[in-house]
Amino acid sequence: MFARSLHLQLLKQCHPRTFSTSTARTADFTHVVIGAGAVGLAIARQLAEREGTSTLLIERHGSVGTETSSRNSEVIHAGLYYGPNSLKTHLCLSGRQKLYSLCAKNSIPHRNTKKWIVAQDADQHNELTNLHAFTSSIGVPTHFIPLSEAHEREPSVRATEAVLESSSTGIVDSHALMSYLESDFLSKGGDLALHTTVTDIEPLSSGSQGYKIHTSSPSENVDSTITTETLINSAGLAAIPLSNQILPPSRYITPYYAKGSYYTYSSPHPHPNTLIYPAPTPGLAGLGTHLTIDMAGQIRFGPDVEWVESPDDLTPNESRLGAAIEQIETYLPGIDRSRVEVGYCGIRPKLGKGGSVARGDGKGFEDFVIRKEEGFERFINLLGIESPGLTSCLAIGEMVEGLLYR
Questions:
Q1: What percent of the chain has pLDDT over 90?
Q2: Per-residue model confidence as pLDDT tens digits over 291-330
Q3: Which of 259, 231, 256, 198 is nearest to 68 (CA)?
Q4: pTM of the full predicted structure?
Q5: How far apart, in whole angstroms, are the C-alpha atoms of residue 257 and residue 349?
Q6: Most buried of 11, 106, 215, 216, CB within 10 angstroms?
């Protein structure tokens, strides 16, 4: 692995690369992917496999995956919450299988922990019943556990009404995953530009002649310009502002940022071995302050949801600790309050303040946006790529390749 500035990469290019289309044109790269989170890495890796092409991955930070991809719960999601016809469901189901397979084949730390969703009253029980009916309809395995069995398996967990188990949920070391994707991308001949910020993008003849990308590298005080045949916007928290640079004002989108705080727990007891989630709450922009476990076996709680104006607002908010502990105690009443502390924060890129759980006609639910942009040839936009983006990343990579070449 290496970290070269874009300027140094361009110095090593002796000749511009020709476009793959029949019209005589030249460009520096066949593909440019902006944003080296888990999804951007997976897309770039997928495209780098195509013979006779060149792929550049641009990242503004000094290493890959330092934003949303590394500030999350590291859960391999089963695909329980996103409705029957959404991209989130389709990509999560496909991506989960691909991710488990990739991790097993390449010794990427992961574990099939399973997950419990717990109900404390009749209304929550009804939510779980509806959830089970939905997952059965799409082929995702869930089943109810008798309360006596639940207490025997996880005696510290409170579930007074029902427990729904998802047997295909797990966890993954997101840093190890992204390290593998980065290494594999580079081994396929891809180029990675770190410390490189995109400052402007010019569609050339609405993209029919490609795209001119202006960048800066503050670490070396260097500005560069490159051209590409194909542009993929996978910039995560910066994706909507980047899209608004390219599209006309009538197609501008307002970004929303959901800050989620995670809470550490320093006591060895209680210590469930299963992921524990509260029953889904209608309209909530998250899945509640749940319990997850990292690959080292450490418990953490979160995230909660706090709407913020800036995607850079990563300062932990101590005032939210009390409310988080109250929610945690609904399903883990034996925790030592004094050993729960604010840990870190992550920001999720949102397309609105809608809920994370699809219901009924889907109104208020925010799906992924992954599309070719009309009027801009070979420009793929990925917007609102939050959870289950990590689980879906490999499937998203295949989808983007399909949009371009199938």
A1: 85
A2: 999 999 999 999 999 999 999 999 988 999 999 999 999 9
A3: 259
A4: 0.93
A5: 5
A6: 215
Nearest C-alpha neighbor of 198 from the set 181, 211, 186, 216: 216
Length of the chain equals 406
What is the C-alpha separation between 370 and 234, in angstroms, rounded? 9
